[in-house]
UniProtKB/TrEMBL annotation:
GHMP kinase C-terminal domain ranges (all copies): 292-374
Pfam families to which the protein is assigned, alphabetical: GalKase_gal_bdg, GHMP_kinases_C, GHMP_kinases_N
Protein name: Galactokinase
Keywords: ATP-binding, Carbohydrate metabolism, Coiled coil, Galactose metabolism, Kinase, Nucleotide-binding, Phosphoprotein, Transferase
Gene Ontology MF term list: ATP binding; galactokinase activity
Domain GHMP kinase N-terminal residues, every copy: 109-195
SUPFAM superfamilies the record matches: GHMP Kinase, C-terminal domain, Ribosomal protein S5 domain 2-like
Assembly: Homodimer.
Gene3D superfamilies hit by this protein: 3.30.230.10, GHMP kinase, C-terminal domain
InterPro entries found in the cross-reference section: Galactokinase, Galactokinase_CS, GalKase_N, GHMP_kinase_C_dom, GHMP_kinase_C_sf, GHMP_kinase_N_dom, GHMP_knse_ATP-bd_CS, Mevalonate/galactokinase
Enzyme Commission number: 2.7.1.6
Organism of this sequence: Cyprinodon variegatus
Length: 394
């Protein structure tokens, strides 16, 4: 059986209850917002190379409730599972801004970063409670969902111009400056712009997105959490990014988006084996992503699935960001009849796989993956969902 997870209204009810218990002196929350995590269907490690990605927003969301206060300072409490301690932080918005510097607990860094990069200054003091159904460190962008949800919360407290792209960029900046991850634009983008029933083909150079309909009742998008925790703050993600930049610069280009396989082959010796393999993954993955989006538009699921598996193999062998557990889950999924394709999703080194399959094959796929996997997986049957939004208060 796939896991059931609370929807946005169940999370909202929980957050409101907690708010009342934590802040009995305050009036009930006047603001409630949510922002989704994402799963990337294909186009991995291409966003910071100005390439294409094809993610969709998830029904797994982070919810923030709260409101302005006449009391001093800002207090934020998280009820998100697995958040590190302490779960309550107090911040001072006036003065030298030192309380917004990154530190511990780690979950609060995303919030501090967003406050720092929020584009309408002079926020009022506030109280807020955060809760989430996006698994932390599961490769489903729990961090982007927290950043975008919190930014959306601030927009309700002290409105900015409401423009969506600057919001995406500010949240990405928050991740760079406060979480120390030099991430691309994909996660924050789809958490803001995601649409129900659609994946988004995002051109990470022009920042234009083309919706790709994905609402076939005969088709299921199954996410499997390996429950191997991933952390992108280690050296691997920045190292991959640097290797790509070195490859592009050795070829006289701004990014690998403009490099062809013929050019790469020709420069192979000059680049050295590791840099060549990293760049080859990116150049081929960009092309695969465009082809996959076309295939999805045509309903050519077999072709899409084949490209997913090629993507996984490339991430495993050329980019070297997979791990034994993810490989096991992908192999197991591909043994089940009715499965079109499966691959690791997100930054890698643990986290989740995404599998595209016929609806009738879901139970068997879950059973088989459980049996074949050496760890304890969690399964989510998901559908493409809306991006950040306000929630109605009761
Ligand atoms: C992480 C990053 F945050 C994204 O920007 C992207 O690079 C992804 O890893 C890999 O495709 O989620």
């Amino acid at each position: 059986m796939a896991s059931s997870f609370p929807d946005a209204s169940a999370l909202l009810a929980d957050a409101l209850l907690r708010f009342g218990q934590l802040f009995p002196e305050e009036p009930p929350p006047q603001v409630a917002v949510c922002a989704p995590g994402r799963v990337n269907l294909i186009g991995e490690h291409t966003d910071y190379n100005q390439g294409f990605v094809l993610p969709m927003a998830l029904p797994l969301v982070t919810v923030v409730v709260g409101g302005p206060t006449s009391a001093p300072g800002v207090t934020i409490v998280t009820a998100a599972q697995d958040a590190d301690e302490p779960r309550r932080v107090e911040l001072i918005l006036t003065g030298d801004g030192s309380s917004l510097s990154p530190g511990l607990p780690r979950w609060a860094n995303y919030v501090k970063g967003v406050i720092q990069h929020y584009r309408a200054p002079a926020l009022p003091n506030f109280r807020a409670v955060v809760t989430s159904s996006v698994p932390l460190g599961g490769g489903l962008s729990s961090s982007a969902s927290l950043e975008v949800a919190f930014y959306s919360f601030l927009q309700k407290l002290k409105p900015d111009d409401g423009e969506k792209l600057p919001k995406v960029l500010a949240c990405q900046q928050a991740e760079h400056t406060h979480a120390g991850v030099p991430c691309g634009i994909m996660d924050q983008f789809v958490s803001v712009f995601g649409r129900e029933g659609q994946a988004l083909l995002i051109d990470c150079r022009s920042l234009e997105a083309t919706p790709v309909p994905l609402a076939d009742p005969g088709l299921v998008i199954l996410i499997t959490n390996s429950n191997v925790k991933h952390s992108l703050t280690g050296s691997e993600y920045p190292t991959r990014r640097r290797q790509c930049e070195e490859a592009a610069s050795a070829l006289g280009r701004d990014s690998l988006r403009d490099v062809t396989m013929a050019e790469l082959q020709e420069a192979r010796e000059r680049l050295g084996d590791v840099t060549y393999r990293r760049a080859r993954h990116v150049v081929e993955e960009i092309e695969r992503t465009v082809q996959a989006a076309e295939a999805l538009k045509r309903g050519a699921y077999q072709e899409f699935g084949r490209l997913m598996v090629e993507s996984h193999n490339s991430l495993r062998d050329l980019y070297e960001v997979s791990c034994r557990e993810l490989d096991e889950l992908v192999s197991a999924a591909m043994e089940v009849e009715g499965v079109f394709g499966s691959r690791m999703t997100g930054g890698g080194f643990g986290g989740c796989t995404v599998t595209l399959l016929q609806a009738h094959a879901v139970d068997e796929a879950i059973r088989h993956m459980k049996e074949r996997y050496s760890g304890t997986p969690t399964f989510y049957v998901t559908t493409p969902s809306d991006g950040a939004r306000g929630l109605n208060l009761p």
